Amino acid sequence: MTDSRHSGRVVLVTGAGGGIGAAIAEQYCREGAAVALVDADAAKVEEQAAQLRDAGFKVSWAHADVADYAGCAQACERLSQALGPIDTLINNAGISPKHNGAPAPIWQMTPDEWQRVVAINLNGSFNLVRILTPSMVERRFGRIVNMSSVAGSAFLPLVAAHYSATKAAIIGFTRHLAGELGPFGITANALAPGRIETPLLKTVSAEANQAVVDNTPLRRLGTPLEVARATCFLTSSESEFITGQVVDVAGGWLMR
Ligand SMILES: NC(=O)C1=CN([C@@H]2O[C@H](COP(=O)(O)OP(=O)(O)OC[C@H]3O[C@@H](n4cnc5c(N)ncnc54)[C@H](O)[C@@H]3O)[C@@H](O)[C@H]2O)C=CC1
Ligand SMILES: CC(C)c1ccc(C(=O)O)c(O)c1O
């Protein structure tokens, strides 16, 4: 789908080299936005940006770790000089570390592992919000989408406690942002994807995925494009009266 509902917008997507982030960046391009791609993996994000630029889209990219406030501030400065003031922020970068392919039991999780997941999944979203909201407040316009997960409000055996805790915290953070920033014309919403077919799920057994499918009313896993479309909707003029919400993209799985 190509339309222009985001033309004139400047969108920053974190984790834009990964499965869902790359789909989000591409969808915003297709909808007319200029897109800043940020990722800790320089090779992946450079390649993704090159593909979009070759397709004729207006993009810029930066290699940055969302947990590093100073690095993100520098990247945002450079990206907004290249593309214009960033009015739409998609906090998508996230990790879910495993122990030998399985989620770490809480009694084996090290304090360093816990802190690293908090630093990326939660503090990373704070960092970008803190860096970009001054200009949104000044311009009386902004759109923020934070990536949570169904794991933020349900027990999922595939993930560990640090992941679930940070995804729950993202929901509280989003609601607070909506309340505090609404008077300045800024909306903040969260997405809670269910199981989405990305490289991250390659390690999951077919049986485990089938169990989810069997309990999903729409009887399949989701795709990165479906998350991207929901993201674009939540920052478009069609959803301008929606803020402080958590939207599941899960085919009806769990329905908490
Ligand atoms: N795939 C799924 O089934 C679901 C994914 N999610 C969430 O969606 C988001 C994207 O997930 P996927 O695309 O599946 O994962 P992915 O692993 O394919 O992509 C994540 C991207 O974030 C980047 N990244 C990791 N740490 C970073 C850091 N410190 N700074 C900047 N970039 C960093 C990675 O390099 C990677 O490109 C995550 O927040 C994840 O928790 C939520 C629910 C389900
Ligand atoms: C991608 C993350 C780690 C993940 C993995 C699995 C599920 C699930 O079982 O549905 C998730 O919701 C996730 O967020």
UniProtKB/TrEMBL annotation:
<feature type="domain" description="Ketoreductase">
    <location>
        <begin position="9"/>
        <end position="194"/>
    </location>
</feature>
<dbReference type="InterPro" id="IPR036291">
    <property type="entry name" value="NAD(P)-bd_dom_sf"/>
</dbReference>
<dbReference type="InterPro" id="IPR020904">
    <property type="entry name" value="Sc_DH/Rdtase_CS"/>
</dbReference>
<dbReference type="GO" id="GO:0018511">
    <property type="term" value="F:2,3-dihydroxy-2,3-dihydro-p-cumate dehydrogenase activity"/>
</dbReference>
<dbReference type="InterPro" id="IPR002347">
    <property type="entry name" value="SDR_fam"/>
</dbReference>
<comment type="pathway">
    <text>Aromatic compound metabolism; p-cumate degradation; acetaldehyde and pyruvate from p-cumate: step 2/7.</text>
</comment>
<dbReference type="GO" id="GO:0048038">
    <property type="term" value="F:quinone binding"/>
</dbReference>
<dbReference type="Pfam" id="PF13561">
    <property type="entry name" value="adh_short_C2"/>
</dbReference>
<keyword id="KW-0560">Oxidoreductase</keyword>
<protein>
    <recommendedName>
        <fullName>2,3-dihydroxy-2,3-dihydro-p-cumate dehydrogenase</fullName>
        <ecNumber>1.3.1.58</ecNumber>
    </recommendedName>
</protein>
<dbReference type="GO" id="GO:0016616">
    <property type="term" value="F:oxidoreductase activity, acting on the CH-OH group of donors, NAD or NADP as acceptor"/>
</dbReference>
<comment type="similarity">
    <text>Belongs to the short-chain dehydrogenases/reductases (SDR) family.</text>
</comment>
<dbReference type="InterPro" id="IPR057326">
    <property type="entry name" value="KR_dom"/>
</dbReference>
<dbReference type="GO" id="GO:0006633">
    <property type="term" value="P:fatty acid biosynthetic process"/>
</dbReference>
